[in-house]
């Protein structure tokens, strides 16, 4: 029942926010001092809302599994309304063209997973620890499983 409730809440957040992933964890220090490793970001992705320079976006590029959290630094708007943009991590020396797929110099709206609307500092460190130390993840699951099996209802 807990798993079904969590899944329903997750799917509800996807519908409400318009983002395929309404909550993400910052995995690197490339956005410091704005966001630190382990910060939990809340995203929206409303297609009517135009992307502007200075916004922090989460995007996926072809060939990479993990979404990237960076700031939009340049907008290239065509007369027909198409928008392309360039991103850069606040703590990085150069823009993100080296992260995009080969031959790609700009991102498009289809690459955006969401835009940062709020955050909770360091809440995502649990996720990072579980990814960095798989034995910790399995130990935590074992403890939770044992608790469920051994707990008696009063």
From TrEMBL:
Topology within the bilayer = Single-pass type II membrane protein
What is the official name of this protein in its record? Signal peptidase complex catalytic subunit SEC11
Cellular component terms per the entry's GO annotation: signal peptidase complex
Catalyzed reactions: Cleavage of hydrophobic, N-terminal signal or leader sequences from secreted and periplasmic proteins
One family from Pfam that matches here is Peptidase_S24
Member of which family? Belongs to the peptidase S26B family.
List the signal peptide residues: 1-19
Keywords of the record? Endoplasmic reticulum, Hydrolase, Membrane, Protease, Signal, Signal-anchor, Transmembrane, Transmembrane helix
Q: Where is the Peptidase S24/S26A/S26B/S26C domain?
A: 15-101
What job does this protein perform?
Answer: Catalytic component of the signal peptidase complex (SPC) which catalyzes the cleavage of N-terminal signal sequences from nascent proteins as they are translocated into the lumen of the endoplasmic reticulum. Specifically cleaves N-terminal signal peptides that contain a hydrophobic alpha-helix (h-region) shorter than 18-20 amino acids.
Q: Could you tell me the superkingdom of the organism this chain comes from?
A: Eukaryota
Subcellular compartments: Endoplasmic reticulum membrane
Record-linked InterPro entries:
LexA/Signal_pep-like_sf, Pept_S26A_signal_pept_1_CS, Pept_S26A_signal_pept_1_Ser-AS, Peptidase_S24_S26A/B/C, Peptidase_S26, Peptidase_S26B
Catalytic class of the enzyme: hydrolase
**Quaternary structure note:** Component of the signal peptidase complex paralog C (SPC-C) composed of a catalytic subunit SEC11C and three accessory subunits SPCS1, SPCS2 and SPCS3. Within the complex, interacts with SPCS2 and SPCS3. The complex induces a local thinning of the ER membrane which is used to measure the length of the signal peptide (SP) h-region of protein substrates. This ensures the selectivity of the complex towards h-regions shorter than 18-20 amino acids.
Q: What is its EC number?
A: 3.4.21.89
Q: What is its main location?
A: endoplasmic reticulum
Q: Which GO terms describe its biological process?
A: signal peptide processing
Please name the taxonomic classification of the source: Eukaryota, Metazoa, Chordata, Craniata, Vertebrata
Q: Which GO terms describe its molecular function?
A: serine-type endopeptidase activity; signal peptidase activity
């Amino acid at each position: 029942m807990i798993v079904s409730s969590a899944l329903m809440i997750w799917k509800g957040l996807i519908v409400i926010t318009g983002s395929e992933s309404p909550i993400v964890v910052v995995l690197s220090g490339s956005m410091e001092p704005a966001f630190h490793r382990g910060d939990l970001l809340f995203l929206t992705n409303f297609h009517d809302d135009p992307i502007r320079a200075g916004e922090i976006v989460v995007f996926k590029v072809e060939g990479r599994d993990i979404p990237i959290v960076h700031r939009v630094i340049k907008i290239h708007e065509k007369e027909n309304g198409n928008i392309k943009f360039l991103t850069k991590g606040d703590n990085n020396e150069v823009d993100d063209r080296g992260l995009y797929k080969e031959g790609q110099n700009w991102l498009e709206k289809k690459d955006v997973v969401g835009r940062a609307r709020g955050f909770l500092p360091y809440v995502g460190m649990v996720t990072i620890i579980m990814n960095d130390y798989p034995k910790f993840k399995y130990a935590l699951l074992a403890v939770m499983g044992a608790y469920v099996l051994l707990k008696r209802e009063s």
